[in-house]
Amino acid sequence: MKKVAFYTLGCKLNYSETSTISRMFEAKGYEKVEFEQHPDIFIINTCSVTDNADKKCKKIVKEAKKISPNSYVTIIGCYAQLKPREIAEIEGVDAVLGAAEKFRLIELLDGFTKEQETKVLASEIQHANTFNNAYSINDRTRTFLKVQDGCNYGCAFCTIPLARGKSRSDSMENIVRSAREIAETEVKEVVLTGVNIGDYGIQEGRRKEKFSDLVMALDQVEGIDRFRISSIEPNLLTNEIIEFVSTSKRFVPHFHIPLQSGSNTILRSMGRRYLRELYEDRVNKIKNLMPHCCIGADVIVGFPGETDELFLETYNFLNELDISYLHVFTYSERANTRAVEMEGAVPMKKRNERSKMLRILSEKKRRKFYQENLGKTFTVLFEEDIENGQMHGFTENYIRVAAKYDPLLINELKTVSLSEINEKGAVEVVEPEFVYEKH
Ligand code: SF4
């Protein structure tokens, strides 16, 4: 029996896909092992958004060859689609598979027999037009369920459409079936995952279903305690979705809404499909209906043309906005995007300073959000995340809780009341002795 190990870089979508591919291997009789357990085959699922994707890929291949010198090394994922020839040059790589090929790798690489030449099977991205469903089962608590892939938006800084192709989705029927399968396991929380999930519903190039209908259909699936919407574009987050989530027992009050910039000048030049007024309107709508809702935002600093004044517009906008945390990205040039051709490159030092300012702002926002929720009662889903005698979990509105380790609490939902923040930024809760701390 051949042993296979996996390594995943990047987003939730990559994790869900690695997990599904690993189940395909197991179904064919391969044994799935850890990276360091001397596998015969390594599958490395790469990301193009990660900085230094090439260096990371090389490093993982090198480690793999150290562990099993005669192993068969296969590279898949966004970086493999974008730069297959470059990857084929890396010493130790046996095969590179693109987006249209990766789900067929067992059949395409037939027995994983080493050959003189590196195999490169990566068709042009327009051939990646089928939808392969996927969900992760990495731990018992949470699963990432892929509902959509690809993107038709073409933002100026983004390589994802080049790496993952056009927007396409699974049918509602299939997704509900997968959710029912997941409900048969011990998993308590399902995170809906995709590249642009608000654009859910395109099948074979035609819009057939709507994301709001999917949300409503999943809400009926018995046996799953929580659904979380991972990230949704502000222009696709409709009142219908917000209103539904506000009354749902299963969809949790947490939205992650990419903003990218708080300056309309920069939003236009990025090719985003909304202005800051729309974003603000979405946040207000959510907060009016669900004052305890957690809202996260992605922001890119140092996009070409972002002057000090325009950055300040973003800073002030975010400072005023009732959101709970930020994911800050420092802009970096990516080949084959419109942004690399743009004038007004921001010096790296400035990009880093801006990034630091927003990270500090994010911490302030998070603390304020925690404070606002003191004295309230929430449900925590405890995970197998144990450190120094403490275990961790998240409330429905994404507050991270730490409590004294108790094996009986793993993968259990517990109602707690958050009582006070201690001097380390942690909050103690009533009954049992829970502590809630920032992350
Ligand atoms: S919406 Fe824009 S940033 Fe998001 S995946 Fe599509 S092109 Fe990239």
Which properties best describe this structure?
six-stranded parallel β-sheet; disordered C terminus; 22 strands; 13 helices; 3 domains; binds iron/sulfur cluster; six-stranded antiparallel barrel; alpha/beta; pyruvate-formate lyase- activating enzyme; 24% strand; 31% helix; Rossmann fold; 439 residues
Overall pLDDT metric = 92
- Named CATH topology of the largest domain: pyruvate-formate lyase- activating enzyme
The molecules bound to the chains, other than polymers, are:
iron/sulfur cluster
User: How many E strands?
Assistant: 22
Instruction: Classify the helix fraction into a percent range.
Output: 25-40%
Tally of DSSP helical segments: 13
Note the main sheet.
6 strands, parallel
Radius of gyration: 22 Å
Helix/strand/pairing category: alpha/beta
| Euclidean distance between termini CA atoms | 42 Å
Instruction: Detail the poorly predicted runs.
Output: 432-439
In short:
Residues 137-368 form the Radical SAM core domain. The protein has helices at residues 12-27, 53-67, 78-82, 84-88, 105-108, 160-164, 172-183, 211-218, 239-247, 264-270, 276-289, 308-320, 348-372, and strands spanning 3-8, 31-32, 41-46, 72-77, 95-97, 119-121, 142-146, 148-149, 168-169, 189-193, 202-203, 206-207, 226-229, 254-256, 294-301, 325-330, 377-387, 390-395, 400-404, 413-421, 426-430, 434-437.
